[in-house]
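Intended use. Records like the one below are meant for learning the mapping from a protein sequence to its folded structure. Do not use them to infer anything beyond what is encoded.
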Amino acid sequence: MRDKRIIRIRNPTLRQFRNNLRKLWLSLILNRNYQMKIKQEDLVNHSGGPFFRTKDHVEQYMNLKYSMVEAKRMGNYSICICPICFSHEEDMIWDSFSETWYCVLCHYKIYKIELSGGDKNRISRKKYNDRRHY
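Structure written out for the chain above:
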């Protein structure tokens, strides 16, 4: 993919749709991790003695742990969430050096780039609106 490719959506309805899809994807990953965590707890021996009853339980526990890590990595390295600020409602920009999607503000902070007029106004307006709701 080209370096510094920005996925920008200006239509508010499409932005809301995109944000809802991102939330859905992230909640699916969290729900899947929660279900795997419950399965892991069922494999652990809580009555004292050895931590696991059989070697099969150890293998199942490790496979679930690996699946949880993979699911978390899938969410963190997707376009759905910025790995620095964990924002999921911003436009994202591709950085080919780190092979990661960042929100525009974090990307500009990393590379110390000045924001353009439209980005600066939109981001400062969003930060102002976020402060008003708390």
